[in-house]
Amino acid sequence: MKDLMQQLINGLALGSIYALIALGYTMVYGIISLINFAYGEIYMFGAFTGLILAATYKTNVVVALLGGMMLSLVLGVLIERVAYKPLRRSSRLSALISTIGVSIFLSTLMVLLKGPNTQGFPKLFENKVYAIGNFQITIYQIVIIGVAAFLMLALHLFVTYTRTGRAMRATAQDQDAAGLMGVNIDRIIATTFAIGSSLAGAAGVLAGIYFNAVQPYMGTMAGLKAFAAAVLGGIGSIPGAMLGGLMIGLLEVLSVTVNLSEYKDAFAFGILILVLLVKPSGIMGQKINKKV
Amino acid sequence: MNILELQNVTISFGGLTAVDKLDIQVKSGEILSLIGPNGAGKSTVFNLITGLYKPSDGAILFQSEALTGSPPYRIAKKGITRTFQSIRLFSELSVLHNVLIGTHVLGQAGLFHSIIRSPLMHSEEKELREKAMAALDFLGLADKEHEKAKNLSYGEQRRLEIARALVSNPKILLLDEPAAGMNPFEKTVLMDIIRKIRDTGVTIFLVEHDMTLVMGISERIVVLDYGKKIAEGSPVKIRQNDSVIEAYLGSGQFRSRIRRKETGAC
After folding, report:
1. Residue A252 near residue A267 (C-beta atoms within 8 A)
2. Which of A7, A13, A256, B264 is a plausible cystine mate for A141, CB 3.0–4.6 Å?
């Protein structure tokens, strides 16, 4: 029992990271029905930005986190402009392949810039362990869960209560009609990419601190798992992505508990296959009746 | 004064010329109807005006300023809003939020103000809400504000579309078959609403099949057939126009309704 509680906390921290990346997948899918496979690499990019800020410029954790988010945001908007916007009117498959191209480009670029080796993250603050009852929580875990929860709450408030958020929800439902109501669709799409990318960047910095390991291909697996999380939660649904991320994180940690740690990656993708077979719309997703 | 002017507007889809060298003048403050048989190109005209389609040729002027080439959101900002033949509400959003989307062009508070939650954003949001409620009230939907749009009755959804288009204080309102699917009572209410809207100074441009409605409220009518204007004038004049009668009822002689090139070569 003690072990289980402990694993729940570990899973929550890991799941928060997946959830932050999954939000990017789900938001962009909600607006333009595109899976942006480059989010994993934006997460990697965020981790490296945080690393460089912390290691080379000796900044504190807040600056590293905000810097990672800002630069990822710029990268996300740039990717949208260069790789997706010109393909908006072409087939969905072309855009999808373009996202895979961007993802390969980014990880290879990082190998060129920083080398292929795993790099450690400098200690930004002392890691303390708190014992609550019979389980322990580290300050790293508190920071990760706290920052992720704060960002998700902020996103929720933004989408629900602001004018831009409202325009985003309208655009997700009917792009043409939203445009005719005076919503600048191009700007809404760019904003969506920007928000998703900065969340992935934040996840990257947090993951760098948590795992103390940053390398150019770290985004591939994390991105795919976050994608599985978004599908599990119901792609297009923001609360779904949060829930899906946490569930995938918990599941992965639990698989370690039951001594199946070699198969922990298989669990996430097993879930993905299962969801696609049994309930393709996911937990919170809506069944969409395509107009014929 | 003409508020909206189509000059020699043409659009072809592949080999089909949907709108052919069309000239229409909409006078400020009038109720103008565009009628014609199915497939005459009426909705295409609306899609051209609102920027969903770009004309292959010709120009569209709004208050003597060229619209051609502007994206839809800019055209909406200039004061042209519309409803749709097949209802296109944001069905998962509440009635109030649907109308609030319509206020999008009025808002000034962008991303920055939303993030810092500035007083400007708060006062603006309050003002927009009041406007939205006023529009709902005007169309008799105030008590449904929290309902999801998809749960409204058909007639209510049509009225909600009008509220959404009206809330941004447009200068001209394009109504695409607003009476479709309405019962006679709802139609009478609708006619009343359209007149009231016009009396607040909004020009009305209407596409409609329902002749009772068209003849009842229009001041002028333009008739379209095969993308071409075949007649224009007051309801009385249109009713007696031979080519209009022919377009709707046929000439009594066999004439293929398939569009052919004038040369007859194909």
Report:
1. yes
2. A13
User: B137 near B46, Cβ under 8 Å?
Assistant: no
B86: alpha, beta or left? (left if phi > 0; alpha if psi -120 to 50): beta
Buried b (16+ CB within 10 A) or exposed e, A111-129: eeeeeeeebebbebeeeee
For every residue of B153-196, DSSP letters joined together read -HHHHHHHHHHHHHTT--SEEEEESTTTT--HHHHHHHHHHHHH
Residues in chain B: 266
Confidence (pLDDT) at A121: 86
Cα separation, B259 vs B16, whole angstroms: 9
For residue B110, give how far its alpha carbon lies from the nearest alpha carbon of chain A (Å).
Answer: 7
CA distance B51 to A185: 13
Q: Is B211 exposed, middle or buried (0-12, 13-18, 19+ CB in 10 A)?
A: middle
C-alpha span between B247 and A44 (Å, rounded): 65
From start to end of chain B, where are the E strands? 2-13, 16-27, 31-35, 57-62, 65-66, 80-82, 172-176, 203-207, 220-225, 228-233
Which residues of A fall below an 8 Å CB-CB distance to B?
Answer: 158, 162-167, 169-170, 173-174, 176-186, 191, 286
Token pair recorded at residue B50: 């609102």
Of A268 and B174, which is predicted with more confidence?
B174
> Can you give the pLDDT at residue A88?
85
> Which residue type occupies B27?
K
Cβ–Cβ pairs < 8 A, chains A and B: 83
pLDDT of the residue at B160: 94
Residue corresponding to tokens 């697996």: A221
Q: Match 């409605």 to its residue by tokens.
A: B213
Cross-strand pairs, B61: B5, B66
pLDDT along chain A (292 residues), means of 10: 79 94 92 90 95 90 94 95 89 90 94 91 82 83 92 91 89 90 91 95 94 92 93 89 93 84 84 87 68 42
**pTM of the full structure:** 0.82
The Cα–Cα gap between A104 and A41 comes to 8
Closest chain B residue to the Cα of A188, Cα to Cα = B111
- Write down the pLDDT at residue B34: 94
* Spans of all domains in chain A: 2-226
Please, which residues 87-106 of chain B have a Cβ atom closer than 8 Å to chain A? 88-93, 97, 100-102, 104-105
